[in-house]
Each structure stands twice: as structure tokens, then as C-alpha cells.
């Protein structure tokens, strides 16, 4: 099969074949033609209307053997790309679920970004109020933090309720494979745990007495950079070979701006020092979704080469902080290494809105309706109104309560439930500025979850899949 070249063809350019159905053929060709892509392309529109219904068996029977470097299938199709690669001897991939995302998809693919790739930040996740928890609760919290991406479990001690057997708790966690740190100023706790602790002028006598701990050196209370540098110098004089410097980030309206300056000045004064930032003073003490707060602080840490971040998840709006730091540290490392802005390749910290938003126009939807021949309802939104249509009717409203009575499904409970759920999702997408794709979960960044497929959707798709499998 001769692969016709797209705009700007060249011998060294990769050659891609895009497989789709009859309904999307024109739109796909227009989108590819407008992309100015760095590859040559051709569209193969098979004799099936809805591309999402493409199956492995149908492609095996109907797709001409491709002569190209890779074949791209619609993102919603259920075909097995590994099986197709074995059958045809060429790489198969799935594109985006929405055709309007194709340009962004190839831009992101070109970045070769690995969301589980390298980073330069160690996350310490603090278990607060340790004295209130039994061993089972401590281990459960530690396991949750580890699953979220924490590298070190930090044991938060209370000055009013010292823990006599802290060493036992440290040993228990280490026996389960955890790295452990201890957040305390208490000498007995620090010596018992001997894993970490904070040093200032009040307890610098601990410097050099800890056998395995890497102490965190902070400024004296209420004082600034000069006291921090003095404490660092004294700790080193007392024989501390390795230490971590924490200039201390302060809450908003309680020295936040000045503490940012202190971090910058500390980095200038100690260019080689390991540094820590306790981000909980912002995420826990600012009543705002923590993802954006963490993203900004991760940017500061990236610029200043801060290698340790201490966080916790106590306030309801801060639940997920460990996972957010894990996502964001990889994003910032990638951007820093490339010398680019932290955008365009990892949208997991965009939760309430969507990173890329594309929506159909009413004219496009009416044109789609004219090509339909079945009674299955399609649901779409352009951000202002919600549209529900099939071959027989086209309903446009901004209030889903006005839409439902016009659909005539009152006597089919499972169908009514399916449409009601989808209409609610479409309404959420319209109100929040998110993309809606029928039958797919809304995208909530790292919080996105898989939905159980409604029985009605399965029953409606099964006959169509059967027809597609036997299509000529």
C-alpha cells in the first residue's frame, strides 16, 4: 500500500497510517492537514461508521496490510494493539480519545516525557500526633504515604506528649522497609529514634552525639539567616559530617514573603548544602486546594535546588499532598532539565479545570446528526448548552432538567439511569470548564478514577459490535 504523504513530505520523515470510521474521516483529514506535522500520513476509513467500535477481529479482517512505520487507532476503540502488532508486523498505537486533541497528543508524544521518570526531590511524609496512634494506625498511614510516593516516613512528635519508646516505633517501620525520620526537639526522643531531628541553638549539643541521624539545622526561633548560618557552622564544628539546612517557610501573613527571601539568601550563602522545605506551613495553613500551592512551591524548590520536601495531610483540603509532590517533582525536573516552562507535558496537577479544552460547535453537531441512522442518543456540550441527539431528534438546553422529559425514555429504567448519569457529567463539564466525552470519566488530573460501565451502555454497544464484526 502506497502511503500518501501529508504536507511537507520528506524521505527521512516517519510515515503514519490513521485508521478511522466513515463519520470521522473528513474531520481527521482536516485536522492532520492543519497540523503541519513532522511526519507523513494517510487516512484509512474502514466501512464502519463509529470508529470507537473497531475491534481486533474486524481490523484483522478488513484492514489492508499497512506499509508504514506505525498505525494509529482512535483512542476509544477497544482493539488490542499488541495483538494487531503481531498480526500485521507493524507498530499499532492508540491516539487521543477526542480528535480535537490530536495536535496536542503529538506535541506531548514528542516530549518523550515519562510521568514515572527521574526527579531530584526526596519526599518526607509526616505522621502527625504520633502519640495518639497505635502501631496498626501508624503502619496504615505509612503504607498510604508510601503508595502515594513518599520516600521517607517522618514521625511527628509533640513536645507536650513525649514518646518514651520512639526507638521501637522506628525499628518497627524500618522492619517493614520504610526509611524513617523524626521531627522533634526533645533530646530523649532524638536519641531514642536516632534517625533525625531538628537542631538550633537550644539543642546543638546533640550534634555529633547522633550515630546514624542526618540532622536538620534551622534558624533560632524568630531570628533570621544569621542564626541559621551560625547554627550550621556550630554543627559542623561539633563533628556533623552531613546535615540538611531548613531556612523554614512561614505561613502567609506570618512572614511568608520574608521566608522566601531567606531561602534565596541561604542558597547563596550555602551553595552546596542539602536543603529542605516544610511545605505544610503553606498547604495546611492556607484554605485552598493544595495542588496549585504545591506546584508553586515545587517550582521554588526546583530553582533553588532544594532536595527535600516535608509535607503532611491533616487538613481536608490538603489530602493528596504526597501524591501531588510526587507528580510535580517529576514535572519540574523535566522542565528544569530542558530549560522550559513546566507545562504542556504533564497535566496531573490540573484537577478542577482541564489543561487542554476543545469543544464542538452546534453546526458540527447538527452536521453529525444528519449522518446518523440510529436512535442511540449522543450527548455533547459546547460549554454553554448541552445537546442530546439521535437520527430522530435534536435537543439543545442549558438545564438538564429541561432535556430529560424530551427524550422519551421514562419506560426504560436502565436507559434513563444511563442518560441521567451522562447528563449530570456533561453539566459538570459545562459548569467547570472541562471536556466531556460520552461514556468516559471526566478528567480530574491525578484524581481521575475509572468508572464502572453502565449495563445499558454495554447492551447498546454489543449489537453494534456484532454488526461491525460481520461487516463486509
* Mean pLDDT reading: 85
Q: What integer value in Å does the Rg equal?
A: 28 Å
| Low-pLDDT segments, ≥5 res | 1-10, 193-204, 459-472
General form: elongated
- Count of alpha/pi helices: 16
What does this structure look like?
There is one protein chain. By secondary structure, this protein is an alpha/beta fold. It has 3 domains: 15-110, Rossmann fold (3-Layer(aba) Sandwich); 122-338, Dihydropteroate synthase-like (TIM Barrel, Alpha-Beta Barrel), CATH 3.20.20.20; 362-469, no CATH class. Helix content is 38%, strand content 13%. It has helices at 25-35, 56-62, 81-88, 102-110, 135-148, 166-175, 187-193, 225-237, 256-269, 280-283, 290-303, 321-338, 362-370, 400-403, 413-432, 455-469, and strands spanning 15-20, 40-45, 70-73, 91-94, 122-127, 152-156, 179-183, 198-199, 216-217, 244-245, 274-278, 308-311, 378-381, 386-389, 394-397. It has an 8-stranded parallel sheet. Strands 2-1-3-4 form a 4-stranded parallel sheet. Strands 13-14-15 form a 3-stranded antiparallel sheet, sandwiched between helices. Strand 10 (244-245), helix 9 (256-269) and strand 11 (274-278) form a beta-alpha-beta unit. Helix 6 (166-175) packs parallel to helix 7 and helix 11 (290-303) packs parallel to helix 12. The radius of gyration is 28 Å and the shape is elongated.
